[in-house]
User: Fold this.
Amino acid sequence: MAKKNISSIIFHLENLFAIKCLSDEKAGQLFKAILQYGYDESLPDFPDDAMQGLFAMYQVQIDRDKANYAETCERNKRNAESRYKKNTT
Assistant:
């Protein structure tokens, strides 16, 4: 299946409690790394295991959301092609 670009990512409020354990500086670094990964799948190089672990939480979520988006696009494409074939025959 072709990789589909996404224009947004979802931040789940349940992750707030983990993020609140970080300093504002580290939370900002994590936020930037999450957005960068959502944009181009760049992986950060956090020396801190906790930061790497928190990032991994979001990485899995973003990958899952991208896969779901690609599946939705593919299903919509098949449905549109099916409607087009019905209308032309």
In short: The chain is about 70% helix and 0% strand. The helical segments are 16-19, 24-40, 49-88.
